[in-house]
Each structure stands twice: as structure tokens, then as C-alpha cells.
Write a structure and sequence with these properties.
33% of the residues lie in helices and 27% in strands. It is built from 14 helices and 23 strands. Strand 17 (333-334) and strand 18 form a beta hairpin. The protein binds adenosine-5'-triphosphate (ATP) and magnesium ion. The site of adenosine-5'-triphosphate has 16 residues, from strand 8, strand 13, strand 16 and helix 10.
């Protein structure tokens, strides 16, 4: 992408409304623009990150056997009356009437809608297990939208719903999602710790929140230090194998958020030198809730042994896709700006032309730009006539993993400068080798 043809409204000034670093940097880097309280336009750079995160989430859901569909944002209120949640949900729910005065709502979550789809389409236990997910906008009229996309009113969520014939199978479905979450967050360069959680208005008896540690986190967390050290399961993990050992390893050490913090238990179970208290950001939340919706909504199937009308066992599994954009920045930035992990970076390389308008420099940049793209490297080419200093600070701000700097002096010597955004290290590389070198750096980081 040529910067001259892109929309990247970066600013030097710190926006006064932003209280936390990710919000400040997202505004300054031209990733989002507030449209009204807690509602944002995703500008091109931010949109690319949102797409990369969505794609990682999608790949790991698919790997774990979940199946993607897409439910609408607007739902019929009648479904929520069936489950009894229409009145319970309160003012967080945005209620709408259509021209025929039918009650609709902008979905804050989708248990009712998916249960309705299930009961209309699945008749037999032979079609189970089934896990359906989508990545869709939600609306919750939060009392206090804040911290930019971290607590928005409109936000993008991945929500998956599992259906099983027995509680035992339902727990297996839960475990698959648990493992998929460990992999998902790891691929984004995050250490996400599963913590026992309150089941809240969704209800049920088995629930974990996935929390990333950051000073600006909204919840207080209490956890065993070793939980931060575990590696994620490998890509070739067999989801049909017994996942119980992994789950046990991640859940037997004490970890909980302030909502259910049990001081006595924390003190009793965790040795003093392993106790850790910190702030955390909730990036995912999984629940197993059995027949909570299937019973009232009559989502039943024909069971084995000729049983009729067995209510299905369900779980639901959310990931805050748009919140993750802010969460990753909270976890990875410095005083000059964002530092993207390669996997979610909007572009892999920023190409800086130090003398736009100079025929030789332009030609060299043009050639590198094309060769890099052909090698599968995503390049944002700063071909504008801004000053070099401004180009450098912009590149640091938007945080692409590598900067490739081309100027007349280097060209004379046949070299390019490559800067690694994370380490700050600069290296002079022969022009004939730089494309292959960057392509392999990008590949190995993905
Ligand atoms: P929170 O306690 O932060 O309000 P929640 O328990 O209401 O979250 P869930 O209903 O489990 O959240 O939603 C799944 C995921 O969606 C959460 O883990 C979080 O990452 C994300 N999420 C929830 N509310 C918001 C919001 N207002 N803005 C952005 N992301 C959100
Ligand atoms: Mg909430």
C-alpha cells in the first residue's frame, strides 16, 4: 500500500479524552475515530488489525472443530421473552421497534438466537457434537463506556455455542474451547491466564475468564506466578484426545479475579513467594451452562436408546475481538508508539523513501516495494514528500515490525537500512539481499 493513496490521519498531540495508553495510541496512529460515546469507526489501519485478529480467532476455532456462520445484529424480542432474559437484561440492551411496532433488540449476545436456530435445524443426537460460532458486532449500552475500544458500546465479538447430548460431552466441548483460547491468545503474542469466574447473568456452573496482565486492567487478579510461565499447546494438538491434563495444569493453581476472589483460599493455596496480584484485562470468557436455555426454549433432540426430546447441553464462548486490539497495544508499546507482534501487524514492513521526488531513490523504492509484495511481505510504502524526521516518527508510532529505509547515500553504497521496531536495532543490508532477508524474518515470525 502506498501511503499517498491511503488514509492515515496520525497526530503528534495527545488526545485529551484518552485515559490509557492504548486509547491514546489508537487515536494518534489513526486507527479509530470516535463516532459517538463508545462507538467507533475503524479507519483503514485499525481495520486491518481487526481483520488479522479475527482471522487468527477464526483459524483456531476451525482447528478446534467449531463451524462458522453469521447471525444478524438485530434480534426478535420474543426469543428473549422465551428464555426470560428480556426483562433481566436491563438498560444495557438496546431495544428497538420496527414500523409494524414489533419489538427488536440489537444483540448483546446470542444464546437465544442460536438456540432457536438449533431447535429448528437439528433433530437427532447423531448430529452432535456441534459447535457454531460467528464474529459479529454486539451492542451493550454500558453505563460507562471508556478506554476507547476496550469498553465500547458497539464492539466486535467472537461467540461460539456448543451443543451436546450429555453433560460429559458438553464438558469435552468446553475443554476444546479452553485449549483453542490458549492457542489463540498465544498467537497474538499475549499471555492470557484462565481464571475461575463468576457465571454472571448468563448462569451455569463452569466458567473461566481469560485475562491478560496490564497495569490499566479493570479487574484485580490474584494468581499463582507459575501460570504466567506455561507454553501454549502446539498447532498439531489432537482435539479428540483427552485434554484433561492440559485443563488441570492450567486450573489447579489458584487464579481468580476480584469478582470471586477468595482471600483465604488464595493465602492457603498459594505459597507466599508464588503469590501474585496484578491488574488484568478480560479478553475472553467461556461458560458451560447445561440446559439453562435448551429447557425453556425446548431445544431438544432424539437421544440414543430411543429417548425422545432430550434437552441439549450447551456452553458459550466469547472473545472480545475489538477489545483485543487495545489489549495488545497495552501489552506491547514504548514511549514512541505501538510495537505490533508480526501476526497482527497491519503491515509487516514500512518502506521509508528518504527523498521522494529523486528519480533514483523513487526507482529503488518502487523496485523493492514490488519485490517485497511479490515475496508475500505486506508493505506500507511512505512515498509522500514529508520530511524524513516526520516519516520516522510516524513509522515508530504505527509500530510496524520492520522499517526499511532507502536514501541516496545508502543507494550509492548499495545498501539499505533495516530497523527492528521492537529492539530498535538498525542494520545495513546489501540491496541485493534485503528482500530475501525481510521475507524470511517475516515468515519465521508468523
Ligand atoms: P466485562 O466484564 O468486561 O463487561 P462481560 O463478562 O460482560 O465482560 P462477556 O459477556 O463474557 O463479557 O463477553 C465476551 C467478551 O467480550 C469479554 O470477554 C470481553 O473481551 C468482550 N467484551 C464484553 N463487553 C465489552 C465491551 N463493552 N467492549 C468491548 N469488549 C467487550
Ligand atoms: Mg460486561
Amino acid at each position: 500500500m502506498r501511503l499517498s493513496k491511503f488514509l492515515l490521519p496520525t497526530t503528534k498531540e495527545n488526545p485529551s479524552e484518552a485515559e490509557i495508553v492504548s486509547h491514546r495510541l489508537m487515536l494518534r496512529a489513526g486507527m479509530v475515530k470516535q463516532s459517538s460515546a463508545g462507538i467507533y469507526t475503524w479507519l483503514p489501519l485499525g481495520h486491518r488489525v481487526l481483520q488479522k485478529i479475527s482471522q487468527i480467532v477464526r483459524e483456531e476455532q476451525d482447528r478446534a472443530g467449531a463451524v462458522e456462520l453469521l447471525m444478524p445484529t438485530l434480534q426478535s424480542a420474543d426469543l428473549w421473552r422465551e428464555s426470560g432474559r428480556y426483562d433481566d437484561y436491563g438498560k444495557e440492551m438496546l431495544r428497538i421497534q420496527d414500523r409494524k411496532e414489533r419489538d427488536l433488540l440489537y444483540g448483546p449476545t446470542n444464546e437465544e438466537l442460536i438456540t432457536d436456530i438449533f431447535r429448528q435445524t437439528v433433530k437427532s443426537y447423531k448430529q452432535l457434537p456441534l459447535n457454531l460460532y460467528h464474529i459479529q458486532w454486539k451492542f451493550r449500552d454500558e453505563i460507562r463506556p471508556r478506554f476507547g475500544v476496550m469498553r465500547g458500546r458497539e464492539f466486535l465479538m467472537k461467540d461460539a455455542y456448543s451443543f451436546d447430548i450429555s453433560e460429559e460431552d458438553g464438558r469435552k466441548a468446553y475443554q476444546k474451547m479452553f485449549v483453542a483460547y490458549l492457542r489463540t491468545f498465544d498467537r497474538m503474542g499475549l499471555k492470557a491466564i484462565p481464571m475461575r469466574a463468576d457465571t454472571g447473568p448468563i448462569g451455569g456452573d463452569l466458567s473461566h475468564e481469560f485475562i491478560i496482565l496490564a497495569e490499566t486492567g479493570e479487574s484485580e487478579v490474584f494468581c499463582h506466578k507459575d501460570l504466567v510461565e506455561f507454553d501454549a499447546p502446539p498447532a498439531d494438538i489432537d482435539y479428540e484426545a483427552d485434554l484433561d491434563p492440559i485443563i488441570r495444569q492450567r486450573t489447579e493453581l489458584y487464579a481468580a479475579t476480584d469478582e470471586i476472589h477468595d482471600v483465604d483460599r488464595f493465602d492457603a493455596e498459594v505459597p507466599k513467594d508464588k503469590q501474585m496480584t496484578a491488574r488484568g484485562i478480560e479478553v475472553g470468557h467461556i461458560f458451560f451452562f447445561g440446559t439453562k436455555y435448551s429447557e425453556p426454549m425446548k431445544a431438544v433432540v432424539a437421544g440414543p436408546d430411543g429417548q425422545n426430546a432430550v434437552p441439549v447441553q450447551m456452553g458459550s464462548y466469547g472473545i472480545g475481538v475489538s477489545r483485543l486490539v487495545g489489549g495488545i497495544i497495552e501489552a506491547s508499546h514504548d514511549e514512541n508508539g505501538i510495537i505490533w507482534p508480526m501476526s497482527v501487524a497491519p503491515y509487516h514492513v514500512g518502506l521509508v523513501n528518504l527523498k521522494s521526488g529523486d528519480a533514483d531513490t523513487d526507482a529503488a523504492c518502487e523496485k523493492l516495494y514490488k519485490e517485497l509484495e511479490a515475496a508475500g511481505v505486506e508493505v506500507l510504502y511512505d512515498d509522500t514528500d514529508d520530511r524524513a524526521g516526520a516519516k520516522f516518527s510516524n513509522m515508530d508510532l504505527i509500530g510496524l515490525p520492520f522499517q526499511l529505509v532507502i536514501g541516496p547515500r545508502g543507494l550509492k553504497e548499495g545498501i539499505a537500512e533495516v530497523k527492528n521496531r521492537a529492539t530498535g536495532a538498525r542494520e545495513n543490508i546489501d540491496l541485493s539481499e534485503v528482500v530475501a532477508k525481510l521475507a524470511s524474518e517475516v515468515q519465521s515470525a508468523l
